[in-house]
Design goal:
The structure holds two protein chains of two kinds. By secondary structure, chain A is of the alpha/beta class. Chain A folds into three domains: about 1-145 and about 275-335, FAD/NAD(P)-binding domain, CATH 3.50.50.60; about 160-270, FAD/NAD(P)-binding domain; about 350-460, 2-Layer Sandwich (Enolase-like, domain 1), CATH 3.30.390. Chain A is about 30% helix and about 25% strand. Chain A has a five-stranded mixed barrel. In chain A, strands 7-14-8-9-10 form a five-stranded parallel sheet. In chain A, a hairpin with a 4-residue loop joins β17 (about 350) and β18 (about 355-360). In chain A, α1 (about 15-25) packs parallel to α8. The radius of gyration of chain A is 24 Å and the shape is globular. The termini of chain A are far apart. Chain B is an alpha+beta fold. Chain B folds into four domains: about 1-105, RNA polymerase II/Efflux pump adaptor protein, barrel-sandwich hybrid domain (OB fold (Dihydrolipoamide Acetyltransferase, E2P), Beta Barrel), CATH 2.40.50; about 120-215, OB fold (Dihydrolipoamide Acetyltransferase, E2P), CATH 2.40.50.100; about 215-300, E3-binding domain (Dihydrolipoamide Transferase, Irregular), CATH 4.10.320.10; about 335-555, Chloramphenicol acetyltransferase-like domain (Chloramphenicol Acetyltransferase, 2-Layer Sandwich). Chain B has ten helices and 27 strands. Chain B has helices at about 205-210, 235-240, 260-265, 285-300, 330-345, 360-375, 380-395, 440-455, 530-545, 550-555, and strands spanning about 1-5, 15-20, 30, 35-40, 45-50, 55-60, 65-70, 70-75, 120-125, 135-140, 150, 155-160, 165-170, 175-180, 185-190, 190-200, 350-360, 400-405, 410-415, 420, 425, 430, 435, 470-475, 495-500, 500-510, 510-525. In chain B, a hairpin with a 4-residue loop joins β4 (about 35-40) and β5. The N and C termini of chain B lie far apart (about 70 Å). The chains are: A alpha/beta, B alpha+beta. The interface of A and B includes residues 406, 430 and 432 of A.
Chain lengths: ~475, ~550
Amino acid sequence: MAVNTQLAVLGGGPGGYAAAFLAADLGMDVTLIDLEKNPGGVCLYRGCIPSKALLHIAKLISEAEEAKKWGVEFGAPKIDVDKLREFKNGVVNKLTGGLGQLSKQRKVNYIQGRGEFLNSTTIRVKKTDGTAEDVIFGKAILATGSVPVKVPGLSIDSPRVIDSTGALELNDIPARMLVIGGGYIGLELTSVYAALGSRVTVVEMTPGLLPGADRDLVTALSRRLEKKLEKIMLETKVVSITEVPEGLKVKFEGKNVTEPEQIFDKVLISIGRKPVTSGLGLENTGVKVNERGFVIVDKQLKSADPNIYAIGDIVGNPMLAHKAAAEGKTAVEAIAGHKTAFEPNAIPAVVFTDPEIAWAGLTETEAKEKGIKIEVAKFPWGASGKATTMDRNEGMTKLIIEPETERILGVAIAGVGAGDMIAEGTLAIEMGAVVKDLSLTIHPHPTLSETMMGAAEVFYGHATDMYRPRRK
Amino acid sequence: MITEFKLPELGENILTADVVKVLVKPGDKIAADQSVLEIETDKATVEVPSEYAGVVKEVFVKEGEKLKVGAVVFTFETGTAEVKAEKPEVKPAAKPTPAPEEVPVKEDVIKSVPEAKAVTGTFEFVLPHLGENIASADITKLLIKAGDKVEVDQTVIEIETDKATVEVPSDISGIVKEVFVKEGSKAKVGEVIFTVEGVSTSPKPKQETKISAPVKKEEAPAPVLQEAETSKAEKFFAQSEIPVKVNTVPQLIVPAAPSVRRFAREIGININMVMGLGPGGRISIEDVKAYAKGLNEQYAATGCPRNALCIQAEPLPDFGKWGDFERKQMSNIRRKTAEHLSYSWGSIPHVTQFDKADITKLEEIRKQFGKKVEQEGGKLTITAILIKVIASALKVFPQFNSSVDMDKNEIIYKKYFNIGLAVDTDRGLLVPVIRDVDKKNIIQLSKELNEVSARARDKKLSLEDMQGGSFTISNLGGIGGTYFTPVVNSPEVAILGVSRSSYEPVYTEGQFEPRLMLPLSLSYDHRVIDGADGARFIRWVIEALENPFLLSLEG
């Protein structure tokens, strides 16, 4: 059986479905291929969305606990894991079901199955019902995403060793848990399990959590995490994991290791993700993949095969849903013949821990590495009225500024709600805003967003809520 | 009515200018746009056009005088004058200073004078200028009919040229009185499309649509604008409006909103080349349009996109259709070589003269003295000898040691003798220059030659080392070949290509004799060197090689 289509999209994640939907809106005849019953991809099924549902609960639990300080006591939380899992699954089903609806409304031909390229014009789909179908396409968009990296020797075949997917399934709440990898995925899941009652240890090879992020942003988070976790082991390596009757015996190596052998009920391995570019029959096409497995594309997301475009995690970092979606739209516009290119000034990144950490554009770290001259203006949330009312003064809002033109090159925020607030910073960077634009924009009081204006005022040495005259 | 012509604003930070030439005298009749004054600022020499037409009454400045911006240059009578529309292309550098409201606006000149002042009456909407070489367009959609109310900037027709489909906004407002075209019909630029009854306010006519059409030519690389000559007022203004941006910030973060970047992309403008006039260098749609317009005008003025090469790159085919390929970034040397040689090849009319020199005798002498030179630390090569010979030849034929200045119609004769040598390195072609070769003997030259080639290969040449040549020698003899056509290394005017010498039978005095013959290829710039001179020059060189004593006699 064969079907002809103008555009085939392989992979129904946030990149794939955004592309398929836009293409349908532009009048193309679109086929979307994915393994799941509905579009959604990792993000909706086992990534951003379920983790956010759980993080919301985690935050609620820790706030309830903190309320003691403010004179309100709720008592110890009673957690019904099954019901919690049901809630999370409900969120996932609601959103993916919605996408299925949207897909139908747009008359996108959705095929559930695994696709493999036979050549530059055909994808053979092994459907979940056991049959096969050939999709003959004019153009194709590859959007197959990424999977967690497995570590030989550590990723042993045991139900006790899990990756982010396993962690989000929430089969149980282990008493003692080890998280390998202090990146954003590890820390978000750490926050979830710690709040649900697990004693969590985080082990990270580099000298700090969230490698790559500016250190001053991480400080606020690690201080808070230290109180909630059993231990954070930095500059430490896990050398072996063996299954023993009482759990998993983990061997550590590193200069600060006091107990080189410990037993955990579960180990979560979250050391990164890798693109899914093998097993897709790409060798039957002109698509070129680099040594790290990423598809090589141009600014229009076109691969070395003129019929095939690629977007999202498979074309490189950052592996973020919103980047994939933007790329998907660009690819579709390019296919539609528009003069378009994926050239954003800033792609926001958010770590949904508590407090959240978010940044966009140039970071202080990057500026230092590249020798770019910048000026930094920071507004500590100790001076924020709203943060004080929430008893959450540990945050910070930071602007990275081009000294001569006073243009905003980067924005970084650590604190409650940073993920929502970074959008203003991203817009500022994209619009080529200067510091004056931020300081002269009236921000509502009392909100955390005021800290953005505050940081801009700090740059000029006259922040209303803070006395810090400009040195010069 | 008598009006003053004042020195207009000339650009940022330019407050005064020297009057080089006054091109008008009392009684002269001048037309709008006619050059009336030639001035020199510290940035450029500029011809200043008059904004108005009229008869010159009194001139207040003399040549050689310094003038302040705003100073009255002359007065003129505008009784019959037409007010010229404020030229959008001279904003913001040179906004005309004379206030337009001082000049009476007559009803009957309104069509040619879309002045900012509001006037009531019947107005014509004509098909605006759509871009270079576009004389007409098909009307694909007519969005107004008689009785409709139109506003300024409202899209009134959609047209299709051979380059693009464009929505054309109105530059007048009022009630549509009569429509003269139908959908599907063809209209010429300047043809009346419809008339309106109402108020005319058209401060920004005709530019809107222009940018949509020409896409390809704007993509022409524009790297050297800042060095470009500024002898004409338009160029000066065009330049002050489209300066090349020097971005200190990573290009990844462009100071332009996403919508502006998209607009630039759509009309084929590289946003990184656009100078933003907003706060912090922020680029607006208007900045992009001004830049595109500047490019167009430059194109119209010179017939060329930016630099001298009028050849537009053809779009590359999709090589992937025929097999594997890979793309690699050009090295800086490669890029520079490509740009420079393209310029040389494109701007210099080349002639290559071939000849061969009998170096049998020279070879004997070379071997004879080779040891001695070696003891001194050099190597007596044909190239070292040629450097000396060329230096002498340049003295005899000074036009070979010149450069051409087409803008000033002048030839520059150099009094120094620096010879460049094309050196093949693993990074590409480099041309180090040996200086003052006329003051050095062959031993010194051979030593320096050794040294400079070594430095070229060891990446130790400075930019300075490769500048200031009079003439270039390219010796490919070590590799082989008979003749080739070397490309003149602009701004030099000649280059000598040397190939491999070989024994050939030469018929002399009734019999064939084996002679060692050296093939030479002399390329020269035909603008300054005539064919006969080219032949004479190469013959002179050959005779010097064949009769080494000649150097001492004539050189």
